[in-house]
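Section 5.1 Outputs to date
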Amino acid sequence: MLGASLPWRYAIGVTIIAPLTCFILLMMCPESPTWLIFKSDEDEARKALIKLRGQNDMDNDIIIQEEFERILVYKELKLQSEEHQESVLKRVKSMFDPTFVKPFGFLLVLTIVGVLLCGGPIISYYKVPLLLEAKIKFDPYWTSALMATFRAILSCLALPFIGRFMKRTVHFFCSGILIFGLLSLSAFTYFLDVLEDYELARWIPIFSILLIYASHSFGRESIIFALQVSNMDTSGYI
Protein backbone atom coordinates (compact mmCIF):
# COMPACT_ATOMS: atom_id res chain seq x y z
CA MET A 1 0.00 0.00 0.00
CA LEU A 2 2.80 2.42 0.86
CA GLY A 3 4.67 1.40 -2.27
CA ALA A 4 1.61 2.28 -4.30
CA SER A 5 1.16 5.74 -2.80
CA LEU A 6 4.77 6.85 -2.18
CA PRO A 7 8.14 6.57 -3.96
CA TRP A 8 9.91 3.42 -2.77
CA ARG A 9 12.67 5.37 -0.97
CA TYR A 10 10.10 7.19 1.17
CA ALA A 11 7.99 4.04 1.63
CA ILE A 12 10.94 2.18 3.14
CA GLY A 13 11.60 5.06 5.52
CA VAL A 14 7.95 5.32 6.58
CA THR A 15 7.86 1.63 7.51
CA ILE A 16 10.31 2.40 10.33
CA ILE A 17 7.51 4.20 12.18
CA ALA A 18 5.55 1.02 12.96
CA PRO A 19 8.37 -1.01 14.60
CA LEU A 20 9.63 2.10 16.39
CA THR A 21 6.16 2.75 17.81
CA CYS A 22 5.88 -0.90 18.91
CA PHE A 23 9.30 -0.66 20.57
CA ILE A 24 8.25 2.41 22.57
CA LEU A 25 4.90 0.88 23.55
CA LEU A 26 6.53 -2.38 24.65
CA MET A 27 8.93 -0.44 26.86
CA MET A 28 5.93 0.94 28.75
CA CYS A 29 4.11 -2.40 28.84
CA PRO A 30 4.66 -4.75 31.82
CA GLU A 31 5.77 -8.34 31.38
CA SER A 32 3.07 -10.90 30.59
CA PRO A 33 1.29 -11.99 33.82
CA THR A 34 0.93 -15.51 32.40
CA TRP A 35 4.67 -15.78 31.76
CA LEU A 36 5.45 -14.48 35.26
CA ILE A 37 3.11 -17.02 36.86
CA PHE A 38 4.69 -19.83 34.86
CA LYS A 39 8.02 -18.63 36.25
CA SER A 40 6.51 -18.80 39.78
CA ASP A 41 6.78 -15.04 40.24
CA GLU A 42 3.21 -14.51 41.42
CA ASP A 43 3.84 -11.17 43.14
CA GLU A 44 5.17 -9.59 39.94
CA ALA A 45 2.34 -11.22 37.98
CA ARG A 46 -0.23 -9.56 40.24
CA LYS A 47 1.54 -6.20 39.88
CA ALA A 48 1.52 -6.59 36.09
CA LEU A 49 -2.22 -7.37 36.13
CA ILE A 50 -2.88 -4.29 38.26
CA LYS A 51 -0.90 -2.14 35.84
CA LEU A 52 -2.73 -3.60 32.84
CA ARG A 53 -6.25 -3.60 34.29
CA GLY A 54 -6.02 -0.70 36.70
CA GLN A 55 -6.99 -0.63 40.37
CA ASN A 56 -9.44 2.18 40.82
CA ASP A 57 -12.36 0.45 42.51
CA MET A 58 -13.70 -2.82 43.91
CA ASP A 59 -14.90 -4.05 40.50
CA ASN A 60 -11.38 -3.88 39.07
CA ASP A 61 -10.01 -5.75 42.09
CA ILE A 62 -12.51 -8.55 41.47
CA ILE A 63 -11.64 -8.71 37.77
CA ILE A 64 -7.91 -8.86 38.57
CA GLN A 65 -8.40 -11.61 41.15
CA GLU A 66 -10.57 -13.69 38.79
CA GLU A 67 -8.06 -13.37 35.97
CA PHE A 68 -5.19 -14.21 38.32
CA GLU A 69 -6.98 -17.39 39.41
CA ARG A 70 -7.77 -18.36 35.81
CA ILE A 71 -4.09 -18.10 34.91
CA LEU A 72 -3.20 -20.30 37.90
CA VAL A 73 -5.73 -22.92 36.77
CA TYR A 74 -4.35 -22.74 33.22
CA LYS A 75 -0.84 -23.27 34.59
CA GLU A 76 -1.94 -26.40 36.45
CA LEU A 77 -3.69 -27.80 33.38
CA LYS A 78 -0.66 -27.03 31.22
CA LEU A 79 1.69 -28.78 33.61
CA GLN A 80 -0.57 -31.83 33.72
CA SER A 81 -0.76 -32.02 29.92
CA GLU A 82 3.04 -31.77 29.62
CA GLU A 83 3.39 -34.82 31.84
CA HIS A 84 1.47 -36.87 29.25
CA GLN A 85 3.20 -35.53 26.15
CA GLU A 86 4.49 -38.03 23.63
CA SER A 87 8.17 -38.59 23.12
CA VAL A 88 9.90 -36.65 20.33
CA LEU A 89 10.50 -39.85 18.34
CA LYS A 90 6.85 -40.85 18.55
CA ARG A 91 5.75 -37.40 17.42
CA VAL A 92 8.11 -37.53 14.43
CA LYS A 93 6.75 -40.96 13.48
CA SER A 94 3.18 -39.67 13.70
CA MET A 95 4.01 -37.11 10.99
CA PHE A 96 4.22 -40.00 8.51
CA ASP A 97 0.93 -41.50 9.62
CA PRO A 98 -1.74 -41.44 6.84
CA THR A 99 -4.20 -39.75 9.21
CA PHE A 100 -1.88 -36.73 9.22
CA VAL A 101 -0.21 -36.98 5.80
CA LYS A 102 -3.46 -37.14 3.81
CA PRO A 103 -5.13 -33.93 5.15
CA PHE A 104 -1.76 -32.17 5.31
CA GLY A 105 -1.04 -33.01 1.66
CA PHE A 106 -4.53 -31.91 0.66
CA LEU A 107 -4.10 -28.57 2.44
CA LEU A 108 -0.63 -28.13 0.98
CA VAL A 109 -2.05 -28.47 -2.53
CA LEU A 110 -4.89 -26.08 -1.66
CA THR A 111 -2.40 -23.53 -0.35
CA ILE A 112 -0.14 -23.71 -3.40
CA VAL A 113 -2.89 -23.86 -6.01
CA GLY A 114 -5.60 -21.92 -4.21
CA VAL A 115 -3.50 -19.08 -2.79
CA LEU A 116 -0.11 -18.80 -4.47
CA LEU A 117 -1.00 -19.78 -8.06
CA CYS A 118 -4.51 -18.31 -8.30
CA GLY A 119 -3.32 -14.98 -9.67
CA GLY A 120 -3.70 -12.89 -6.52
CA PRO A 121 0.02 -12.29 -5.82
CA ILE A 122 0.74 -11.61 -9.50
CA ILE A 123 -2.15 -9.15 -9.81
CA SER A 124 -1.01 -7.33 -6.67
CA TYR A 125 2.46 -7.01 -8.22
CA TYR A 126 1.22 -5.80 -11.62
CA LYS A 127 -1.76 -3.82 -10.35
CA VAL A 128 -0.30 -0.37 -11.00
CA PRO A 129 0.91 -1.21 -14.56
CA LEU A 130 -2.57 -2.60 -15.31
CA LEU A 131 -4.19 0.61 -14.14
CA LEU A 132 -1.68 2.68 -16.12
CA GLU A 133 -2.48 0.75 -19.29
CA ALA A 134 -6.20 1.18 -18.65
CA LYS A 135 -5.63 4.98 -18.54
CA ILE A 136 -8.04 5.47 -15.68
CA LYS A 137 -8.92 9.02 -14.68
CA PHE A 138 -7.62 8.55 -11.14
CA ASP A 139 -4.08 8.35 -9.89
CA PRO A 140 -3.17 4.64 -10.33
CA TYR A 141 -0.95 4.58 -7.26
CA TRP A 142 -3.61 5.97 -4.95
CA THR A 143 -6.22 3.74 -6.59
CA SER A 144 -4.00 0.74 -5.92
CA ALA A 145 -3.60 1.80 -2.29
CA LEU A 146 -7.36 2.25 -1.87
CA MET A 147 -8.05 -1.18 -3.34
CA ALA A 148 -5.57 -2.73 -0.91
CA THR A 149 -7.36 -0.90 1.91
CA PHE A 150 -10.67 -2.22 0.60
CA ARG A 151 -9.30 -5.75 0.78
CA ALA A 152 -8.11 -5.29 4.37
CA ILE A 153 -11.42 -3.78 5.53
CA LEU A 154 -13.44 -6.45 3.74
CA SER A 155 -11.38 -9.19 5.38
CA CYS A 156 -12.20 -7.76 8.83
CA LEU A 157 -15.90 -7.34 8.02
CA ALA A 158 -16.16 -10.89 6.64
CA LEU A 159 -14.77 -12.61 9.75
CA PRO A 160 -18.06 -12.69 11.74
CA PHE A 161 -20.00 -14.15 8.78
CA ILE A 162 -17.63 -16.78 7.35
CA GLY A 163 -18.15 -19.21 10.24
CA ARG A 164 -21.95 -19.22 9.75
CA PHE A 165 -21.77 -21.03 6.41
CA MET A 166 -20.35 -24.34 5.23
CA LYS A 167 -16.71 -24.04 4.18
CA ARG A 168 -17.26 -25.87 0.89
CA THR A 169 -20.17 -23.58 -0.04
CA VAL A 170 -18.21 -20.42 0.76
CA HIS A 171 -15.12 -21.70 -1.05
CA PHE A 172 -17.10 -22.64 -4.19
CA PHE A 173 -18.89 -19.27 -4.18
CA CYS A 174 -15.63 -17.34 -3.75
CA SER A 175 -13.94 -19.46 -6.42
CA GLY A 176 -16.71 -18.53 -8.85
CA ILE A 177 -16.17 -14.84 -8.10
CA LEU A 178 -12.41 -15.28 -8.53
CA ILE A 179 -12.79 -17.03 -11.90
CA PHE A 180 -15.15 -14.33 -13.16
CA GLY A 181 -12.75 -11.60 -11.99
CA LEU A 182 -9.76 -13.27 -13.64
CA LEU A 183 -11.68 -13.87 -16.89
CA SER A 184 -12.88 -10.26 -17.10
CA LEU A 185 -9.38 -8.94 -16.38
CA SER A 186 -7.83 -11.30 -18.94
CA ALA A 187 -10.41 -10.29 -21.56
CA PHE A 188 -9.71 -6.63 -20.92
CA THR A 189 -5.95 -7.02 -21.36
CA TYR A 190 -6.46 -9.14 -24.50
CA PHE A 191 -8.91 -6.70 -26.13
CA LEU A 192 -7.21 -3.56 -24.77
CA ASP A 193 -6.61 -2.08 -28.22
CA VAL A 194 -10.33 -2.35 -29.00
CA LEU A 195 -11.67 -1.29 -25.61
CA GLU A 196 -9.41 1.70 -24.98
CA ASP A 197 -11.72 3.97 -26.97
CA TYR A 198 -14.63 3.21 -24.64
CA GLU A 199 -14.68 5.28 -21.44
CA LEU A 200 -16.70 2.76 -19.48
CA ALA A 201 -14.27 -0.05 -20.31
CA ARG A 202 -11.56 1.64 -18.25
CA TRP A 203 -13.44 0.59 -15.12
CA ILE A 204 -13.13 -3.10 -16.00
CA PRO A 205 -9.68 -3.69 -14.41
CA ILE A 206 -10.76 -1.90 -11.21
CA PHE A 207 -13.97 -3.94 -11.07
CA SER A 208 -12.10 -7.19 -11.82
CA ILE A 209 -9.40 -6.62 -9.18
CA LEU A 210 -12.04 -5.74 -6.57
CA LEU A 211 -13.83 -9.01 -7.37
CA ILE A 212 -10.58 -10.94 -7.00
CA TYR A 213 -9.85 -9.23 -3.68
CA ALA A 214 -13.41 -9.89 -2.49
CA SER A 215 -13.08 -13.60 -3.27
CA HIS A 216 -9.93 -13.82 -1.15
CA SER A 217 -11.35 -11.72 1.68
CA PHE A 218 -14.59 -13.68 1.93
CA GLY A 219 -13.04 -17.06 2.33
CA ARG A 220 -10.59 -18.40 -0.20
CA GLU A 221 -7.52 -17.64 1.92
CA SER A 222 -9.10 -17.55 5.37
CA ILE A 223 -10.79 -20.95 4.96
CA ILE A 224 -7.56 -22.61 3.80
CA PHE A 225 -5.64 -21.17 6.76
CA ALA A 226 -8.45 -22.16 9.14
CA LEU A 227 -8.32 -25.73 7.82
CA GLN A 228 -4.55 -25.77 8.34
CA VAL A 229 -4.96 -24.77 11.99
CA SER A 230 -7.77 -27.29 12.44
CA ASN A 231 -5.62 -30.06 10.94
CA MET A 232 -2.70 -29.22 13.23
CA ASP A 233 -4.95 -29.01 16.27
CA THR A 234 -6.58 -32.40 15.71
CA SER A 235 -3.19 -33.93 14.95
CA GLY A 236 -1.72 -32.74 18.24
CA TYR A 237 0.88 -30.35 16.83
CA ILE A 238 -0.26 -27.22 18.64
